[in-house]
Amino acid sequence: MSSTRRRGSPPLLRSGPAHGRAAGPRIGLALAGGGPLGAIYEIGALCALDEALDGLDFTQLDGYVGVSAGGFIAAGLANGMTPRELCAAFIESDSSDGGDLFRPSLLMRPAWGEYFHRLAALPGLAAQAAFHFAFKHRSLLEACERLGRALPTGLLSGAAMERHLARLFAAPGRTNDFRRLKRPLVLVATDLDSGEAVPFGQPGHDDVPISLAVQASAALPGLYAPVEVQGRTCVDGALKKTLHATVLLDKGLDLLICLNPLVPFDATHAKRHKVLGSGEARIPRLVDGGLPVVLSQTFRSLIHSRLELGLKGYAVGYPATDIVLFEPDHRDPAMFLANTFSVSQRRLLAEHAYQRTRELLRSRRSLLSAQLAPHGVRIDAAVLDDPARRLLGRPRRLPGTRSARALKRLDEVLDDLELAVASGRP
């Protein structure tokens, strides 16, 4: 977790309470993407924050912005679904909340329509390639480049997930229409043809179904086929920015809470955590993990460096807003090696994110308390210090011996003290 606090700057102009909310601190939530893992992490982390922070209702905020997988969660919260209800629908597959919303099979449907469309074009493209090679004296490689147009633009389709979301948001008390929400919601995609951000939910882009906007925002190029929305070809919103928080900061927020699930893994200082039931894991050299691990680290590093630059820009451009960022520990192998398409792993990952967020809150207690108190939010010490709390299943069995638990608690207190001293807070 990182955070910034800027003092001595004039307050932003306020336009009054949004959507009928009583006057008071204006708080927003920005959720970055990260595929299935991102959604699982954000649900576990939000459940921990929702329990431990008094005065903060994640269904009653002054605005939400979601990118890619974060769009799933933001849309649910804006529709009045609590973090625990999202956990039931996404993680535990509770049919009372719309069924198995996060069923892995929904994310693994082949893009058959895209395959057939490209296959139908193959004979014509092959004839063109042969013509250019035989009669226009083009090189074989140049002629064959035309055949690239027959390759599908995505392996998978998000249409099944979109239909499931549409059913979920059609339930009583919810809506699939941005204009009927009680709280502002923005889901950001990228226009493939122009490279511009498309902020669904903003004026001029609010007549698109929320479920379709979620699908478009999460259409990672190469993996998911682009989504056609009102004449635009849309892909993942993360192509442009990691958070797109400016759509909320421009409203003059007092506090912005951000969650980012993807961080580069620091193998040189990795903790020796048990990786979700598979035994101890330590990765001294990522190159030993092969191409998938190298690509994952590369993607995470690019996304995170862009996030860091964005946060620095927010600090300069919006000096009257407190910004608090929550993200996984860079040394945690569990959030780097996870198999997010396994049902059992999905539950363990959510529990892991929940417990690690609670640990982070304890080790940052003093700094966070000072930052959140001006906005009417306080840390509930009784909840946060309860060692038996769990996200899923039975009460937690306390790990290790009494002395080991005491040492762990001492480590959290020392981390908290070190951050408080470094920040110059009393």
Describe this structure in words.
The chain has helices at residues 35-52, 69-78, 83-90, 112-135, 140-144, 159-169, 210-217, 246-249, 290-317, 334-337, 343-363, 365-372, 381-384, 402-423, and strands spanning 2-4, 27-31, 53-54, 64-67, 154-156, 185-191, 197-200, 222-224, 227-229, 232-236, 255-259, 322-326, 378-379. With 426 residues, the protein is α/β, with parallel strands linked by helices. Strands 1, 2, 4, 6, 7, 9, 10, 11 and 12 form a 9-stranded mixed beta sheet that branches. It has a two-stranded antiparallel ribbon with strand order 3-13. A two-stranded parallel sheet has the order 5-8. Helix 1 runs parallel beside helix 2 (69-78) and helix 11 (343-363) packs across helix 14 (402-423).
Terminal-residue CA separation: 20 Å
- Estimated helix fraction: 40-55%
DSSP summary, beta strand count = 13
From the spread of the alpha carbons, the general shape counts as globular
Order of helices and strands: EEHEEHHHHEHEEHEEEHEHEHHHEHH
Poorly predicted parts: 4-22, 94-100
Number of helices: 14
Strand content: 5-15%
Taking Cα atoms only, what radius of gyration do you get, to the nearest Å?
23 Å
Largest sheet: 9 strands, mixed
Overall mean confidence score, pLDDT: 83
The SS-based structural class is alpha/beta
